[in-house]
């Protein structure tokens, strides 16, 4: 694996390997000294053309926990705001010796362009591109599902075969939904997308998932997990943008509230990629419920991103020395 651009590029074996490695990384984070020497001397660049707090900090933390040097590059206040192209920015980073470039970009396909261009010889990790893909978010969601729903004991080597997952809300604008559908299908889960017709993309019938317009029916079918998507009002032309009549109507039809939460099976968990619109796609009762693993998703994101960086930058050279063992 040279780059991580899309969950669609991952085989079951590759996905399980990342999840297994994330489990090893998570185990090291309970120690008093959390840092590993694995990527000492390597440089990871966070190249963010879109605002993000959670994802950028998560990648920065992951790289630092692996002892890599980190350069944070924000488009705001940089040469990009003065008109510099992605190509020129990438060539500048290459000259600085970047071993990996973590890129978030408003244009779908930008990470693929960077990886295929030859502008950088380092590994490229897609941290979100337009409405297209967000592979590490899907991986941390899968890791969270595996921890809670695949039985007791060591989850090593397990996929998500047979699990039933409902993904609810603004699928149209959601790179998280696209990435999750592909990865969950690869790992054997059964996925149902739930949204009003106006918030489903053209061609969704070709995705490896069922489609429903009725949340109560899907909740009644007893899914093992329900993932609520943020309503991305910034991608809509105005409040609601014609995609739904009003916030109140959306909440009535597609919000997770105490009533729907109570109708879920006892073992079912609630996920959300964050940030949440409390009172719109998810109520305070649901968000703060013991069934919600939303805060845990953030912590799991660090372990998963550590695993991705490790496998991209050190995985092929792994041996049993103290410098590379993740389970020391």
Give a verbal description of the structure:
With 328 residues, the chain is an alpha/beta fold. The protein folds into 2 domains: 7-134 and 300-317, Rossmann fold; 135-297, Aspartate/ornithine carbamoyltransferase (Rossmann fold, 3-Layer(aba) Sandwich), CATH 3.40.50.1370. It has 11 helices and 9 strands. The protein has helices spanning 12-28, 54-65, 86-95, 110-117, 135-149, 175-186, 215-220, 247-254, 258-263, 284-287, 294-313, and strands spanning 43-48, 69-74, 100-105, 123-129, 164-168, 190-194, 210-212, 225-228, 269-271. A 5-stranded parallel β-sheet has the order 7-6-5-8-9. It has a 4-stranded parallel β-sheet with strand order 2-1-3-4, sandwiched between helices. Residues 318-325 have low confidence and may be disordered.
Quote the average pLDDT: 90
Q: List the secondary-structure elements in sequence, H or E.
A: HEHEHEHEHEHEEHEHHEHH
CATH superfamily of the largest domain: Aspartate/ornithine carbamoyltransferase
Enter the CATH topology name of the largest domain: Rossmann fold
N→C terminal distance: 24 Å
Number of contiguous helices = 11
Strand order of the largest sheet: 7-6-5-8-9
Structural class: alpha/beta
Which stretches are poorly predicted, pLDDT < 50 over at least 5 residues? 318-325
Top-tier CATH class of the largest domain:
Alpha Beta
Helical content class: 25-40%
């Amino acid at each position: 694996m040279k780059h991580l651009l899309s969950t669609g590029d991952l085989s079951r074996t590759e996905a399980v390997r990342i999840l297994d490695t994330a489990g090893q990384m998570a185990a090291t984070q309970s120690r008093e000294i959390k840092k590993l020497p694995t990527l000492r001397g390597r440089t990871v660049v966070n190249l963010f053309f879109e605002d993000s707090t959670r994802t950028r900090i998560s990648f920065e933390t992951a790289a630092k926990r692996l002892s890599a040097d980190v350069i944070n590059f924000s488009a705001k206040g940089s040469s990009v705001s003065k008109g510099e192209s992605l190509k020129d920015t990438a060539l500048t980073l290459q000259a600085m010796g970047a071993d990996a470039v973590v890129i978030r970009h408003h244009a779908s396909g930008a990470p693929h362009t960077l990886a295929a261009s030859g502008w950088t010889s380092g590994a490229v990790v897609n941290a979100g591109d337009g409405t297209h893909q967000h592979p590490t978010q899907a991986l941390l969601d899968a890791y969270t599902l595996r921890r809670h729903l695949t039985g007791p004991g060591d989850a090593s080597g397990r996929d998500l075969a047979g699990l039933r997952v409902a993904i609810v809300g603004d699928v149209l604008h959601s790179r998280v939904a696209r990435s999750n559908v592909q990865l969950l299908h690869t790992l054997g889960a059964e996925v149902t997308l739930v949204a009003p017709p106006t918030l489903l993309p053209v061609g969704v019938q070709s995705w490896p998932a069922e489609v429903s317009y009725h949340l109560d029916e899907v909740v009644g079918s007893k899914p093992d997990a329900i993932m609520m998507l943020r309503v991305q009002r910034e991608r809509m032309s105005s409040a609601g943008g014609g995609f739904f009549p009003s916030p109140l109507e959306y909440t009535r039809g597609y919000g997770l509230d105490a009533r729907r939460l109570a109708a879920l099976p006892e073992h079912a968990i609630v996920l959300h990629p964050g940030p949440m619109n409390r009172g719109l796609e998810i109520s305070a009762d649901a968000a703060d419920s013991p069934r919600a693993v939303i805060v845990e998703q953030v912590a799991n994101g660090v372990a998963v991103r550590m695993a991705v960086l490790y496998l991209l930058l050190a995985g092929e050279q792994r041996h049993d020395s103290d410098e590379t063992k993740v389970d020391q």
